Amino acid sequence: SKPISDPRMQTVTLIPGDGIGPEISAAVVKIFESAKAPIRWEERNVTAIKGPGGKWMIPPDAKESMDRSKIGLKGPLKTPIAAGHPSMNLLLRKTFDLYANVRPCVSIEGYKTPYTDVDLVTIRENTEGEYSGIEHVIVDGVVQSIKLITENASRRIAEYAFEYARNNQRSSVTAVHKANIMRMSDGLFLRKCREVAENYKDIKFTEMYLDTVCLNMVQDPTQFDVLVMPNLYGDILSDLCAGLIGGLGVTPSGNIGANGVAIFESVHGTAPDIAGLDLANPTALLLSAVMMLRHMGLHEYASRIQTACFDTIRDKKVLTKDLGGNSKCSEFTSEICHRVQDLA
Amino acid sequence: LKLISAAPIRWEERNVTAIKGPGGKWMIPPDAKESMDRSKIGLKGPLKTPIAAGHPSMNLLLRKTFDLYANVRPCVSIEGYKTPYTDVDLVTIRENTEGEYSGIEHVIVDGVVQSIKLITENASRRIAEYAFEYARNNQRSSVTAVHKANIMRMSDGLFLRKCREVAENYKDIKFTEMYLDTVCLNMVQDPTQFDVLVMPNLYGDILSDLCAGLIGGLGVTPSGNIGANGVAIFESVHGTAPDIAGLDLANPTALLLSAVMMLRHMGLHEYASRIQTACFDTIRDKKVLTKDLGGNSKCSEFTSEICHRVQDLA
């Protein structure tokens, strides 16, 4: 393996997370080793700590590592109830201004769902919109919740979507909205998308109402390519699309921040009931790591690892329980490792 | 109309266009309002949405005129009309007066816009009560409140609280709660786990169309709008299809199933079942189908086929 000082080795901040997090992270590290990917993992924990002034923050060493490496891979974090601090995911989002949540959804051959040939990407604006957290009691029994849409955030997410489309050879970007009902807010979002589209004449730009997208998505998801949308719609659509390909256990996710930071993560839970029992399925975290490799320009490693993973699932001989088999996590991992080496 | 001629229904036809009343306020024609207030039951086809007509949409006018607070869409898989799903049998009940569709928006400063979502105790209680009554009256076993109260703690929290309170009066119905994103994730993997779903406006807009997609789209989906004062208007939710209008090519299934829903609402269950069976059997047998259903029959032929079956089933 390459020495740590090798300039071709790139550092990635690894946040294993809770529950099954450590074991699926170990699986990914093992598979990357087999692939001889030029990645040096820097493991950090992310817990909420109180900084000077009483403000909640992530541990300084985690922040330092991420600011330096710019790339993170993260397993699931548990959400403590009544812990007094905001969710860790929210803290990470605010610390690194993770404004875009990106989820490619591709049908996995051999993992049967009612759909085949799904190949789309949802790009969700992740900082504002309906999730601003601004709510008030107007009078007793009347509550208002405020949705904020800004020109800057809308332009930024639209630009990311078109850049993503161009960099990943996608042919179209569809803005998803309800501007017929929310004329000002979604209207502003839509206008920014249209303006940005003018600078990307090589990419086809369309617009579709959210309800129409959902109606069409479950009848024929192959008509969709890259979808860009505000926060709440993205929350819904990204989960809907994950369901089309088999659920959160096989869905990768990436969060893009300002200043070049990008954190890739599995979006399933910590599964405490099977933690430490060598039963977990590392596919979602592995595919997120593959997404990470592509983001870093390491396409050959990405393809090889993804192929090894998909071939293992397709051949159905070594599958974890959630995929319909009865193999252990370590056996599933070893199978992928062998295939990765064979594909070299 | 042809299909329900033996049913004890007398049709009173009215047009609904936007007219300006005294004081310059937009309203529906007085004779339409008078008829509906008297009959309490309406069946409505698609209305065109004029662009830049200067008046609000007709659907909005109807909603406000009759306080149509609940949009109800039963989604049942149609045997013979193949979709990736079989055995879908659920109902979405959408609060249709407030929530994200209050229409209250402001420019805060240049480039910053806010949109206000309103949730009230009264509207939430009313829709929850309707959902549980519907479940009880239609032998449904559970009601699931769909929400995002983890994110919108106050607004969706209020909605959820009202659902929980109403649930206490319906111990015979199982009550559950689920995040909207989780519902969508699960819905496309296994829709059979769902029964009656109740939710605020925007979520209902999305979910009702998602579920329509599961069973084949708006061309086969019935819909009912329940108002205050006992008014109920049943309608097909597809468009006016101007390209095939007048050519005897249309598929009347959505409007027919909405009329069947209407018959059930009126307690005319035997007629409802007979007409629905005739319709579903026609689709299942695939001999006489309109183009959108995969056949090449005319609307009139499809209709006659169902008429014969309805008579045979008598």
UniProtKB/TrEMBL annotation, chain A:
Its main location: mitochondrion. It is found in: Mitochondrion. It catalyses: D-threo-isocitrate + NAD(+) = 2-oxoglutarate + CO2 + NADH. One of its GO terms (cellular component) is mitochondrion. GO terms for molecular function: isocitrate dehydrogenase (NAD+) activity; magnesium ion binding; NAD binding. Pfam families: Iso_dh. Keywords: Magnesium, Metal-binding, Mitochondrion, NAD, Oxidoreductase, Transit peptide, Tricarboxylic acid cycle. InterPro entries: IsoCit/isopropylmalate_DH_CS (IPR019818), Isocitrate_DH_NAD (IPR004434), IsoPropMal-DH-like_dom (IPR024084). The keyword Oxidoreductase applies. Belongs to the isocitrate and isopropylmalate dehydrogenases family. Catalytic subunit of the enzyme which catalyzes the decarboxylation of isocitrate (ICT) into alpha-ketoglutarate. The heterodimer composed of the alpha (IDH3A) and beta (IDH3B) subunits and the heterodimer composed of the alpha (IDH3A) and gamma (IDH3G) subunits, have considerable basal activity but the full activity of the heterotetramer (containing two subunits of IDH3A, one of IDH3B and one of IDH3G) requires the assembly and cooperative function of both heterodimers. Heterooligomer of subunits alpha (IDH3A), beta (IDH3B), and gamma (IDH3G) in the apparent ratio of 2:1:1. The heterodimer containing one IDH3A and one IDH3B subunit and the heterodimer containing one IDH3A and one IDH3G subunit assemble into a heterotetramer (which contains two subunits of IDH3A, one of IDH3B and one of IDH3G) and further into the heterooctamer. This is Isocitrate dehydrogenase [NAD] subunit, mitochondrial. It comes from Nothobranchius furzeri (Turquoise killifish).
From TrEMBL, chain B:
InterPro entries: IsoCit/isopropylmalate_DH_CS, Isocitrate_DH_NAD, IsoPropMal-DH-like_dom. Residues 2-306 form the Isopropylmalate dehydrogenase-like domain. It comes from the Eukaryota. One of its GO terms (biological process) is tricarboxylic acid cycle. GO terms for cellular component: mitochondrion. The keyword Chloroplast does not apply. Its cofactor is Mg(2+); Mn(2+). One of its GO terms (molecular function) is isocitrate dehydrogenase (NAD+) activity. Keywords: Magnesium, Metal-binding, Mitochondrion, NAD, Oxidoreductase, Transit peptide, Tricarboxylic acid cycle. Pfam families: Iso_dh (PF00180). It catalyses: D-threo-isocitrate + NAD(+) = 2-oxoglutarate + CO2 + NADH. PROSITE patterns: IDH_IMDH. Its main location: mitochondrion. The keyword Metal-binding applies. It is found in: Mitochondrion. Heterooligomer of subunits alpha (IDH3A), beta (IDH3B), and gamma (IDH3G) in the apparent ratio of 2:1:1. The heterodimer containing one IDH3A and one IDH3B subunit and the heterodimer containing one IDH3A and one IDH3G subunit assemble into a heterotetramer (which contains two subunits of IDH3A, one of IDH3B and one of IDH3G) and further into the heterooctamer. Catalytic subunit of the enzyme which catalyzes the decarboxylation of isocitrate (ICT) into alpha-ketoglutarate. The heterodimer composed of the alpha (IDH3A) and beta (IDH3B) subunits and the heterodimer composed of the alpha (IDH3A) and gamma (IDH3G) subunits, have considerable basal activity but the full activity of the heterotetramer (containing two subunits of IDH3A, one of IDH3B and one of IDH3G) requires the assembly and cooperative function of both heterodimers. Belongs to the isocitrate and isopropylmalate dehydrogenases family. This is Isocitrate dehydrogenase [NAD] subunit, mitochondrial. It comes from Nothobranchius furzeri. The lineage of its organism: Eukaryota, Metazoa, Chordata, Craniata, Vertebrata.
